[in-house]
UniProtKB/TrEMBL annotation:
All copies of domain 4Fe-4S ferredoxin-type, residue ranges: 105-135, 152-183
PANTHER family: COB--COM HETERODISULFIDE REDUCTASE IRON-SULFUR SUBUNIT A, FERREDOXIN:COB-COM HETERODISULFIDE REDUCTASE SUBUNIT A
Quaternary organization: The ferredoxin:CoB-CoM heterodisulfide reductase is composed of three subunits; HdrA, HdrB and HdrC.
Claim: Translocase is one of the keywords in the record: no
Biological role stated in the UniProt entry: Part of a complex that catalyzes the reversible reduction of CoM-S-S-CoB to the thiol-coenzymes H-S-CoM (coenzyme M) and H-S-CoB (coenzyme B).
Signal peptide, first to last residue: none
Protein name, UniProt field: CoB--CoM heterodisulfide reductase iron-sulfur subunit A
Length: 422
């Protein structure tokens, strides 16, 4: 494990900001070509949002298999080093000679000692919302981020932990891995080029007041559906209604929830239609008699994904309704009424379902934040633009599926090593 980086001035050829699928792909391509790479990741684990998916395109397989291969390559590659719970706070210099300041938050767990035995969590009396599962369940204040977390080490949420007032986890840890004296520290890294792979965040569905998220418990988002379907999710892969745990017989997907809307996200996130169709197959696999409605403005399934759309549309229990949803109301017994207009027939419809999934769009993580890189520019939507010595990869650049993000991260790595000297 190469996360225990000493304080002081460090140097490498390339600095990668973001440890998701795009950042890791770029880092591995550059490091396996012989360049020294540092990866800076804000979360306590690598893998980004891909780790939170149940299945991903194009093979519709669980992402853990692909991520495990990436992690194995990292473990055996001395040219790549990573820092979790870290953020870039300042960048100065020029291509070939960047000076990067990185702030590292304390984990309060010594990763060189932690064996992930879990004894600490058993005695911890404090709970927190599980952000990995989008708040649909709880973890203890000391927790393992997820089943394939890399590094496979526990971390303490200092916003809820009582630390020395409690310290039950300290007594339970036979390896003396918990250290409440850890403090935030700042280090400097010299880099010749920078790859920005900061990824995306789901659009805040609470802003869509007409669609009932946060008001009606059985209205969830597409990212929450991924966690419900996942075997390591809050329901161990069982898709059920949040309000009562009931198996839903009717589910509606609302496309462009906030997307292509001047009041929210004015652009198309490119993959939401495919994601909803994919999730419709999750439901049909678990509940053969379930009815699924997909309310859409336009179906977008470019290139090779057109065949997937054709396959899904042939399912007689998946109904595509062309029309933008005006609002969602609550019916009886926790059911929901989807109010829309079918633009093909002109008919105004009120469809009662037991659960609604909002296809919220992809918003770049850099949108609305104070950028630490003065040379980095954003477009009008908040996506980053490459500049000399600073190259953008993945969804930091534009909405895309995993395969496209990986391809573009390889291109960013190639540009980065053209600046760097081996």
């Amino acid at each position: 494990m190469r996360e225990n980086i000493p304080s002081g001035q460090l140097s490498g050829n390339i600095l990668v900001i973001g440890g998701g699928i795009a950042g890791l792909s770029a880092a591995l391509e550059a490091s396996e070509a012989g360049y020294d790479v540092y990866v800076v990741e804000r979360n306590p684990y690598l893998g980004g949002r891909v780790a939170q998916l149940y299945k991903y395109f194009p093979k519709l397989c669980p992402p853990y298999c692909g991520l495990e291969i990436l992690f194995r390559r990292i473990r055996t590659n001395p040219k790549i080093k990573f820092l979790t719970m870290s953020e870039v706070v300042d960048v100065s210099g020029s291509p070939g000679n960047f000076d990067v300041t990185v702030r590292i938050k304390p984990r309060y767990v010594d990763i060189s000692k932690c064996t992930a035995c879990g004894e600490c969590a058993k005695v911890c009396p404090v709970e927190r919302d599980n952000d990995f599962n989008y708040g649909m369940d709880k973890t203890k204040a000391i927790y393992l981020p997820h089943d394939l977390a890399f590094p496979m080490k526990y971390v303490i949420d200092d916003s809820v932990c009582k630390k020395d007032e409690c310290a039950k986890c300290v007594s339970a840890c036979k390896y003396d891995a918990i250290d409440f004296s850890m403090e935030e520290k700042t280090i400097n890294i010299k880099a010749e080029s920078i790859i920005v792979a900061t990824g995306w965040k789901p659009y805040d569905a609470t802003k869509l007041t007409n669609l009932g998220f946060g008001k009606y418990p059985n209205v969830i988002t597409n990212v929450m559906m991924e966690r419900l379907a996942s075997y390591n999710g809050p329901t161990k892969g069982k898709i059920v209604r949040p309000s009562d745990g009931k198996e839903p017989n009717t589910i509606a997907f609302v496309q462009c929830a906030g997307s292509r809307d001047e009041n929210h996200l004015p652009y198309c996130s490119a993959i939401c239609c495919l994601a909803s169709m994919k999730q419709a197959t999750y439901i049909r696999e678990q509940y053969p008699d379930a009815k699924v409605y997909i309310f859409y403005i336009d179906i977008r399934a470019p290139g090779r994904f057109e065949d997937f759309y054709a396959t899904v549309s042939e399912d007689e229990n998946i109904v595509f309704v062309k029309g933008k949803v005006a609002k969602i109301e609550e019916g009886e017994n926790g059911n929901l009424i989807v109010v829309a207009e079918n633009t093909l027939t002109g008919e105004k419809t009120r469809t009662e379902v037991e659960m609604v999934v909002l296809a919220t769009g992809m918003q770049p993580e850099l949108s609305g934040v104070n950028l630490p890189i003065k040379e980095l520019k954003l477009d009008s939507y908040g996506f980053a633009l490459s500049s000399p010595g600073i190259y953008v990869a993945g969804v930091a650049k534009k909405p895309s599926d995993v395969a496209t993000a990986v391809e573009e991260s390889t291109a960013a790595a190639l540009k980065g090593i053209q600046i760097a000297k081996r």
